[in-house]
């Protein structure tokens, strides 16, 4: 059993890596080798855990013990595998035999069939898009084979609560190499990689680091923003849950390059599993001497702490985040001075997000040119997206920058649920934009999205289909940002409130002439005059839906109709007398007795009593009730 003993040199780290490698051996063998032993990897990310994956683990362990297989089979609980739609997920190694929607009652069959008999349980395999062709290995699935999992390469493959597995897979070799290279060479390698901040703004990481490295004031701070607050986004959470040591190592390299001696990971308290695993990784790294004083005998000192945030969306803004760490109310301040000069406690500070730091060890180990092999000239590397909404396969997707939105949604995520028509994708969270079908083939990179009036954001993709009202969607996102406004500056505080009032009025059927023009005026004022990015970008969903779906606003205002049929106050239910059989099923289920009629005769709906709940339409077996 490996022990957490301090590493005093780079040679100690290299020796430990060799000693730890057997931990991962089975996961690197193809089926047909080492078949006398098995490792079972169970997804222990938040999604699968909430679906009962830990109960599956217990049941599998019992089946292993009952069959006397404890010397042949071991279980590893990993981070998120990314295929969140079909959890709990289980993989048997060797071979990468992939099972989906596994329940505790499946455990005995899985152990007896897969381990003892050497066969597979087809009913628990992913059945493909047609539902007829089992995919025995995750390598056979388009969801995985069409991705390029670089940042996510450890997620779902190692135990995030065992630092030796990270080290066995090459972990902490990046900081060792950076120390050997020297500070200037480390800075230059990150700069040449072209890595841009993955938190949303896309500022060049190496340039930011150079700014702070040139400052003389002490101490310097290295901060990680894990305050992931966008609705539908879970990229950073999954990386922290599945590979926390990669983030720690990235921060170590950044601290070494810039001269920082203190660091904080600012993570929202709503991420208890991420906090737990990050805390374990930090404690193990400290025990090995990888965090603290005289790291690897180099004389380099860096101390790191976890700071839990209270869930304020505005604390994703860098200056508000720093005020929160200082114990103050999280509110942004005017810049300049920028944090690289005056940040946390008025000292030089670098802030990057989780995904940015997780890229750093790979850049140092493989070099800037290798990193630039993926992506585009101005947007190098890969990007993780959390794809949610009306797609068949929701989950985490990592692809090279510059691929099309169509490739992500239709090739990797298998298209739209129930064969509905694609309508739009919201990219960039509540501060992003809704892009229509005409832009599905546009490249997904920083500059292309900016040109389209959108933004990369942290990487949330919310896909909507033909049944989604774009006015209501804009109202939803604006209601979020309005509630999360800190209230410090008038343009954001008052502008978002006025815009939301107009959108709610339109959705309720009380829109009037001039509302569209007023929305545009308020939006442009907020973008120009708000203090921070929250207020400056909050109007984006409204402006983008006005740009691409203006006719829906006009229909709400002028025709008093919701084309998507979702705004309740603009709906009306009617009964087609030619189809109505007079079965009375609708009348018997109407909660407000708004439907009248005799048996075997066409019925009528009283529009003054109808509450537009849709129950009658759901219950009618003859298709006689229509929504207009």
TrEMBL record:
UniProt-listed InterPro entries: 4Fe4S_Fe-S-bd, 4Fe4S_Fe_S_CS, NADH-UbQ_OxRdtase_51kDa_CS, Nuo51_FMN-bd, Nuo51_FMN-bd_sf, Nuop51_4Fe4S-bd, Nuop51_4Fe4S-bd_sf, Thioredoxin-like_sf
Assigned protein family: Belongs to the complex I 51 kDa subunit family.
PANTHER family noted in UniProt: NADH-QUINONE OXIDOREDUCTASE SUBUNIT F
Signal sequence, renumbered to the chain: none
Gene3D superfamilies membership: 3.10.20.600, 3.30.70.20, 6.10.250.1450, Glutaredoxin, NADH-ubiquinone oxidoreductase 51kDa subunit, NADH-ubiquinone oxidoreductase 51kDa subunit, iron-sulphur binding domain
Top-level lineage group: Bacteria
Name of the gene: nuoF
Annotated protein name in UniProt: NADH-quinone oxidoreductase subunit NuoF
Keywords, alphabetical: 4Fe-4S, Iron, Iron-sulfur, Metal-binding
Gene Ontology molecular function: any one: metal ion binding
Every 4Fe-4S ferredoxin-type domain range: 571-600, 601-628
Pfam families on file: 2Fe-2S_thioredx, Complex1_51K, Fer4, NADH_4Fe-4S
